[in-house]
Amino acid sequence: MIKKDKTIYVTQPSMPPLSEFLPYLEKIWESKWLTNGGPFHQELEKKLADYLGVEHLALFVNGTLALVTALQALRITGEVITTPFSFVATAHSLLWNGIKPVFVDIHPETFNLDPEKIEAAITPHTTAIMPVHVYGKPCDVEKIQKIADIYGLKVIYDAAHAFGVNYKGESLLKHGDLSILSFHATKVFNTFEGGAIICPDAKTKKRIDDLKNFGFADEVTVIAPGINGKMNEVQAAFGLLQLKYIDKAIDRRHEIDQLYRNGLQGVPGIHCMQLSSSSTYNYSYFPILIEKEYPLLRDELYEKLRQHGIYARRYFYPLISEFPMYRGLPSADRSNLPVANKVASGVICLPIYPALELDHLARIIQIIRSA
Length: 371
Ligand code: T4K
Fold this sequence. Notes:
Blueprint: E1 8-9, H1 18-31, H2 39-52, E2 56-60, H3 63-73, E3 79-82, H4 89-95, E4 100-103, E5 126-130, H5 141-151, E6 154-158, E7 166-167, E8 170-171, E9 178-182, E10 195-199, H6 202-211, E11 216-218, E12 221-222, H7 233-243, H8 246-264, E13 270-272, E14 279-280, E15 286-290, H9 298-307, E16 310-311, H10 338-346, E17 347-350, H11 358-369
Parallel strand pairs: 1-16, 3-4, 3-5, 5-6, 6-9
Antiparallel strand pairs: 2-10, 7-8, 7-14, 9-10, 11-12, 13-15, 15-17
Helix pairs in contact: 1-7, 2-7, 3-4, 3-6, 8-11
Bound molecules: ligand T4K.
């Protein structure tokens, strides 16, 4: 049993040494420049764009406001096709814009929107598709783009989990019209709270920068009912420091992913998410599917882990389509989403983060194997 004071959560934020952060804070105290696109904000936008291999990037105070603003920036209205298998912020961003979500089922291997099922959900009101690269695993970006091109739809990727993921040799974030990232404490790269929109060109970035600053285009011109979505200087400074450690953090996650795979190999009824050689991953989550050959039900294993002080999470259960503000939609009907329902009732995300101790990892594997 892991001791009570040694509770293991699904994740733990990466924190660089505090002493290395203090000089950044001293600079902020000295300059009195706290927010509104200050020097650390500008520097982080450039450095992150370079690191991620994208042209332009607009920082946000969190991923949710980045999603809300991305929809505004492209003037999305009517209906948007999206996945029920995600964090609730994905669909909430649609409701905040007065848009109707239309849920489409997911693919059983990728857990992402099933492109084969998208066309049947398109109506004259559809204006966009909002897929999610769940757990940082790339969507079928080619097929989705093909459908979008045929029907004249925009594609906004919720890439909250996909920091640093490459697909076929370049950034996954380059796909679609816009992609959004989250830098929440629980993410691979964190700025306490934070987020970004990846923009294809400077003109789009300017529009997004205006929208995240109340719609101000200059001192006296307001172009739209924008929001206050700006990242502050403390967050941006933290991001600059985090960037120095990110490669090490992802490498460590990779090792833990590998140890889980080796340790769980051959356990009947435990299915690890398959990774493909066409992508490089960030190992943000370690989801396993509990299938009928396993002696315990998913919730029984979840409880058993908790009894040992291991707080794994059932991301993403319940499905978004089960929440009261969505379940009345025709597309939320369970008969429309059989795969998503099956995956949501069988998934557990095991703890994965760079500081996860090896004996704890071994214990988690042993608990799962011993059932
Ligand atoms: N789209 C997708 C696909 C997303 O997954 C998310 C966020 C968003 C959009 C929206 O992006 P943001 O607006 O959040 O930037 C967490 C996160 O709060 C949320 O950001 C994330 N997805 C979601 C998947 O996970 P909870 O409700 O599970 O968080 P919580 O507080 O239970 O934290 C999980 C565990 O992490 C805790 O048990 C302990 C550990 N933890 C957490 C925090 C906050 C820490 O050790 N330190 C901390 O500061 O939602």
